[in-house]
Every structure is written in structure tokens, then in C-alpha cells.
Predict the 3D structure of the following.
Amino acid sequence: MTDLSWESDAETRCERLITEAILLAPESPETLQTLANVRISQSKFEEARKALADSIEIWKNLPAGDEGVPDFPTRISLSRLLMEVEMEGDAMEVLEQLVDEDDTSVEAWYLGGWCSYLMAEKSKAVQDLNSEGAEAGGEDSDHNEALTSSRDWLRNSLRLYELQDYEDDRLRDHALELVHDLDVELGATREEDGDEEAQDEGWESDVEVEDQEMDGA
């Protein structure tokens, strides 16, 4: 009983603090984002979506670098929240802006790839429900386009991961898993095939050199 009472009191205090914060700073994107996070934890997803949409509306038309635009980490968190409540289109807009500002962000590229993958899955679900061939063809094109975009974003993330010696095993493993699934569905690109052939040729050359050295010995 004590634990339940404490949890109930904690939620009440949290609500009070959120309400006070909104009263003090009703046009703060960060405050609305915090509200959305709380609503997600309460499974009040419609309220979370509204809070996130209101948060974005405050700064979306401001020029890059304006002090009214939330900082980079805040918008990274925002994109995650948007994806959590299935607002992938808004999340991609945020992420595209982020990589325009800093194209070395491993997390931004990873989230963009993951978001595009989710959008592709949604497109596929709609396609499966659609029985009209003409419309399905257009949706199939959208699906493949989203998958290709997803793979491009994820590959950029993994490339930067290696260059920066980034430390987030879960991010790397998930990105690798997604790229593998995308390669199976889309097929490897010509560039990848060329890289694999070059690697094979290099490996064969190394073996030949070793054989020659052994013969000479």
C-alpha cells in the first residue's frame, strides 16, 4: 500500500510541476516536449501528439541559428518522441534539418534511417490492404523509395560510427541488422558488389604472395 500511495503521489506532483511549468513558459518548446514525454509514459498518446505538434509549431519557421530553435540534443530527443507516437513525417523533417546543420552526427543519421524504415513498413501495410492494382503500384514505389532512403541514412551512420570510434553498441547492432534486412529485400548495390569483388581480389593476391614466399623458402 505504501508503494502504491507513493507512486500515486509522485504522479500527482509530476502533474503539478508540469502544469506550473506550462503556466510559466507556455511557449517553451522544451516544456511542451517534456509534457509529451510524460503523456507517453501515461499512454496518453493523443495528448502527447498534440504537445509535440504545438512544440514544433513554435520554432519550425524560425531561421537556422535563431535562439528560439531548441538545441541539437533537444531536437534529437524530439525526433525520438515523434517516432514513438508514430509521427514519422514530422520526425524526418526534424532529422533532415539536423543533418543539414551537422552532417557528422551518428545518432541523427541512424534515427533518420530507422524513421525511414518505419515509414516504409507503414507504406507496405497500406499496400497490402489495397486491392486495386494501379494504386498498389504507386504505393510499392513509395515503399521501395523509403527502404532505399533508409539504407542510405543507416550506411552514413555506420560509416561515421567507424570514423569517430563512436561508442554505442546497441545503435551499431540495430543499424547493422536493419541494413542486412534492407540488403536482402533490395539487393546489394553495384558499388557494394564492386567492393566485395575488390576485397576478394585483394585476398587472392595476398594468398598468391604467401605461396610464392613459401616456394622461395
Q: What stands out?
A: The two ends are 82 Å apart (CA to CA). Confidence is low (pLDDT under 50) at residues 1-6, 193-214.
